[in-house]
Amino acid sequence: MTDDYKLPDACETMEDVRQGVDATDRELVDLLDRRFRYMRAAARIKTEREQVRDEARKASVIAAVVADAGSRNLPAGEIGTIWDSLVEASIAYEMVEWDRLRR
Is this structure's pTM higher than 0.85? Predict the structure, then answer.
């Protein structure tokens, strides 16, 4: 599939919209891949397993995203829920990586 797509304001058909959504989804997965590579780096750098879960950092990350979403007139509460799931998945992944690196 090509990454030739129209930006939202240029869409004229539902096919245009769907192509843009599909391309955006691929870009989001690319960004998630980068984020999870940072989790692997964190697992490598942290010396204690207990350091993996940092509730203060989690709260800070989610608050920043919710504020950013709100400033863009996006559904901040829903995005906060998505980010809570993302951060929890990231923590779980980092735990697995932390254990794997120390076997």
Answer: yes
